[in-house]
Design brief:
7-stranded mixed sheet, 7 helices, globular, Metallo-beta-lactamase, Chain A, alpha/beta, 24% strand
Length: 241
């Protein structure tokens, strides 16, 4: 566990994807994503280190539906009564009301293997609260940024300038996430890159401020994040799929 920017802590023992705790005090304690089901023990261990029991959490906010981010949602809901929230478009897929779009088998071998796992064992949960673009929940704003999945979102914490970006903006360079870099969604794991680019552009064009990026994979980008993100994205050639 590591404090990134108060009130956000990062669960470092959960490796498949980043899990953050927003600890705003009683009634405002949220997990942002909840990791892959195979790392359930690590998730619970990290939570215990914060001094909180699972039932003391207010709920779980999902940046998107993929199993490395939503894999423990159904368990936390069933075992501890935690409420699960996701954007409406992903909530429909998670609950089975809408057919999911499977990942294409493309990219490096490592990426294809992970995509195959996602297609074979997707996350399922009946979401308690379907979020909409522009909605506020807890101390966060919901910004719909579709393209990585149907209902991918940014969560913006205006008070601290933190932007939680899921897998729509990342800070490791593919394919093995070993090197730091600011990158848009990975092609191998996204359903519509054109849509993702347009949503990212639209978000920035509206002038939303942020100072820190807490991404779904990779180290947090702390300080001057908006300028660093824009500079990195402008320097990339956009491939259209």
């Amino acid at each position: 566990m590591r404090v990134v920017v108060p009130p956000f802590q990062r669960f470092q023992a959960v490796l498949a994807s980043n899990v953050y705790l927003l600890d705003g005090g009683k009634g405002d304690r949220w997990l942002i994503d909840c990791g892959h089901w195979s790392e359930r023990y690590q998730l619970l261990t990290e939570l215990k280190r914060t001094g909180l029991a699972p039932r003391e959490l207010t709920g779980v906010l999902l940046t998107h539906r993929h199993s490395d981010h939503a894999g423990n949602a159904e368990y936390l809901q069933r075992e501890f009564g935690l409420k699960i929230y996701a954007h409406r478009a992903d909530a429909e897929v998670l609950g089975g009301a809408k057919e999911r779009r499977a990942l294409a088998r493309r990219g490096h071998f490592y990426e294809r293997a992970l995509g195959l796992l996602e297609n074979r064992w997707p996350s399922r949960v009946q979401v308690d609260g379907a979020l909409e673009d522009g909605q506020a929940i807890a101390s966060l704003e919901v910004h719909w940024i579709p393209g990585h999945t149907e209902g991918s979102v940014f969560f913006r914490h205006a008070g601290t300038g933190c932007l939680l970006t899921g897998d729509t903006l990342l800070t490791p360079r593919p394919p093995l996430s070993l090197l730091f870099d600011v990158v848009p969604p990975y092609p191998a794991y996204s359903i519509d890159l054109r849509q993702a680019w347009e949503a990212i552009d639209r978000f920035h064009a509206q002038g939303f401020a942020y100072e820190h990026v807490l991404a779904g994979h990779g180290a947090p980008l702390v300080g001057n994040a908006r300028q660093r993100v824009l500079r990195a994205l402008q320097g990339r050639v956009r491939r259209r799929f």
